[in-house]
Amino acid sequence: MRTTIDIQASPNQVWSILTDFSSYPEWNPFIREVRGEPIAGRSLNVSIVTASSKTLRSFWPRVLASQAPRELRWQGRLLAAGLLDGEQRFKLVQRSDGSTRLVHSQCFTGLLVPLLRMRLDREARPGFEAMNTALKSRAEARK
Hints:
The protein is an alpha+beta fold. It is 29% helix and 38% strand.
């Protein structure tokens, strides 16, 4: 699953919002809370709300990459490795005019993917798009 949005702010400005986990409850409609630090190798506690469930779901991914102001990537698992693993990626690409293109994606792998593929897309995509729009609004308001 892959979403993109163009933001009229520099990658540094977008990065500062994306990695300021303590402010997520103020603006992020999808990822409501993140505890931990965006440092490769560290674990996070991430809580999301999907449009369909309206309930808070928590998971504990490990940060795979944190390269300011270009990429933040983490991987979480459902129960055990190989059942349903999800790698979430936020890639910030500087455009020629100094603005930022956010590429927000998630790659699911594991035995349960064929059974859950449609549900994962139906539940996660609207959340990704809502988060992207909220991030854009927050970054552009600060400009």
